[in-house]
From TrEMBL:
Top-level taxon: Bacteria
Coiled coil residues, start to end: none
Entries under InterPro entries matching the protein: PsdUridine_s_RsuA/RluB/E/F_cat (IPR042092), PsdUridine_synth_cat_dom_sf (IPR020103), PsdUridine_synth_RsuA/RluA (IPR006145), PsdUridine_synth_RsuA/RluB/E/F (IPR000748), PsdUridine_synth_RsuA/RluB_CS (IPR018496), RsuA_PseudoU_synthase (IPR050343), TruA/RsuA/RluB/E/F_N (IPR020094)
Provenance organism: Acinetobacter defluvii
Ranges where the record places region Disordered: 195-262
PROSITE patterns: PSI_RSU
EC number(s) recorded for this UniProt protein: 5.4.99.-
Claim: Membrane is one of the keywords in the record: no
Keywords, sorted A to Z: Isomerase
Entry keyword ATP-binding: no
Molecular-function GO terms, alphabetical: catalytic activity, acting on RNA; pseudouridine synthase activity; RNA binding
Compositional bias segments (type: Polar residues): 244-253
Stated name of the protein: Pseudouridine synthase
Length: 262
């Protein structure tokens, strides 16, 4: 398993496909075997990792695995303890209640790089910084959470995914680094990579665990797949139409017939 860490700059799209208006992952990483895990929005910065392991993204982002992602967030206004406590308990969003987060007010760190373009400055409105950790992966979740408690996000930097710490690595904006997965506990119990399964495979809990669905007759023989259409049936196989005895025979001329010369 190969893992490459990137400190994603502001304004970079989390995709390898080229874009005429914006930079993408392909401007920083040139390895066709790698896929993005733990994407960030274009207006967010910081830690993303790329891997050749197909199921790692689902493993990291599944809340059941409790892989916390930590963000340094600059918010509009001087954040209050009441707002932080709301974040810790969970916030009601349009797509439901969030799980409890870890949230603390912090000072702007000395290691933080300048953003290009910089965050807008307003002399009459203060800003403050929060360190927040969540184990979910909803769309723009941190931004929606801080806005819901009255402090909109101005700048967002992801600093950690599990034990991977961008600050400890001292990666500058736009820099990459390959790491050894076995040195991190987050990657030591990942299930083996499995091949792609089509939608015809059973995925529900209690199903066949990824094996193709097989239906059997009472005698144990395998049912033939597919359902015959009416034109594929023998005469004796066609369903009989039930009537009350008053149905009249069809005497209408089939469409397209009966008119000579056309």
């Amino acid at each position: 398993m190969k893992i490459v860490i990137l400190n994603k700059p502001y304004g970079v799209l989390s995709q390898f496909r080229k874009d005429e208006a914006h930079m993408t992952m392909s401007d920083f990483v040139d390895d066709p075997s790698l896929r993005l895990a733990g994407r960030l929005d274009m207006d967010s910065e910081g830690l993303v990792f790329l891997t050749d392991h197909g199921g790692l993204n689902q493993y990291i982002t599944n809340p059941a695995n409790k892989k916390f992602k930590t963000y340094l967030v600059q918010v509009d206004g001087d954040v209050t303890e009441e707002a932080l406590e709301q974040l810790r308990k969970g916030v009601e969003l349009k797509d439901g209640m969030t799980l409890a987060a870890k949230a603390e007010k912090v000072e702007q760190p000395a290691w933080l790089w300048e953003r290009d373009p910089p965050v807008r400055f307003r002399a009459n409105i203060p800003t403050s910084w929060i360190e927040i950790s969540i184990c979910e992966g909803r769309n723009r979740q941190v931004r929606r959470m801080t806005s819901a408690v009255g402090f909109p996000t101005l700048r967002l930097i992801r600093t950690k995914i599990g034990a991977i710490d961008l600050v400890q690595m001292q990666l500058k904006s736009g820099e990459t680094k390959e790491i050894e997965p076995l040195l991190y506990p987050d990657f030591q119990n990942i299930p083996a990579e499995e091949p792609y399964r089509s939608r015809s495979y059973v995925k529900k809990p209690g199903g066949t665990g990824g094996k193709p669905m097989v239906r059997k007759n009472k005698d144990g023989s395998v049912k033939k797949s597919g359902t015959k259409r009416i034109w594929q049936m023998e005469e004796h196989e066609k369903p009989k139409r039930r009537t009350n005895g008053t149905t009249r025979p069809n005497t209408k001329t089939p469409r397209g017939r009966g008119r000579s010369g056309r």
